[in-house]
Amino acid sequence: MRNSLGLAAMLVIATAWTHAQVEPEATGGGFLPGVSATQPITQNLLDYSLRYAQGAYVYTNSLTNQSTGIVSGSFDYTRSSDHFPLKMNYIGGYIWPVAGPNLGTGMFQHLVLSQGFNQGRWSVLAYDDINDTPEAPSVGFSGVPGTGETISGSGTGSSTAATILDINTRVLNNLAEGEFGYRAGSATTLSFGGGSQVLNFPNGGGLDTAGELANAGITRYLNSRTAIVGQFEFSHFSFGASAYSNNMAGNYDINSVPVGFRYSLTRQLTVSVEGGPQWISSSNSTLAPPVTTAMVNASASDSFHMGSLSLTYDRGVQSSSGYLAASVVDSVKGDFSRRLGRETSVGITGGFFRFAAVVSANGTADALSAGAQISQDLGRYFNFSANYAAVNQTSSLAGSAPQANVLNGLYHAISFSLAFSPRQMRANQ
After folding, report:
1. Cα–Cα distances in Å, from 257 out to 217, 275, 321, 393?
2. What is the pTM of this model?
3. 360: domain CATH number?
């Protein structure tokens, strides 16, 4: 599911020129992860860390328990600017087995880069999200349980494509988009854009899918707190013949017409809801028959003095999910983080995902994920954290595709980490 990034980009573009009318979020960000087009030029913000973690993974099915070592580094950079807002988030590392089987090990990387440009009536936004992991991403920004990274406030796994969880199959996904916005009046903004989405399994452990995306929309501000939005979204996806598609190639189109609203209850609390009809037309009705359904995206976020809270619900047709030619995905996610004094912080995250094949006979997969973390600063430069994550998935996928790498059961991940993590550096402009 694209998580309505087209609509998100449209709203960010709109807020660029309504800075004087609409109260910005406390985090400085818009609806699109990463870009802030609402702040004046004030400063650059830089965070980085180098981390070592030791993890233990306990499986409740027939798999053998395992322990791993993980080294990772992260880099976060934000440039606040009226004209050229920029945001970059990166984490990368390596996992190796210490004891037990060699499952889900190797390199992992996740990069999100967004660049805005605002001038006069026009705004431009470029966005790219790349995730490469040794298994389907689940918890935290990297999607890899046990790294010791902050698990709340950064989303759950990759924003590019939700996949059915596997335990030993490398997953590469990428979403690239460009958006243009035009201020057509004192309270109206038009937007249009497009991009591409790729979901690949380099070792052949899932259904490779490629897509092209396009969208057009309108935002109408009723007052300083309320905006009404409407959009048309088009996606075209294709895949080759493989065991995961009953050895048949195919392609299909997804059309969506969401409408909704954005409402800022306070400077910190924002609610967004959109929904509308969604329909599929396909070149192969055996794999993806014509279907009309409904899509929904809803979110609420609140930032307060010592922490933050976010909740999201998404429903809609998605490309492949890794093991189905097309599926209807329902997801509920929540994150909460809080500072306990100057040196200690806690975070919790959780989510539920349901993947239902458009062809009902091909089955479903339901997944629950949860995580908790406590983090303690050790002076100015070091940090210690303890993490717990759990993923439980039940699968009834049918068809000729091999399912040995799909998680079907519960596993726990417990880890402890030590990080060199200097406190945030600021550079005024």
Report:
1. 10, 8, 22, 31
2. 0.84
3. 2.40.160
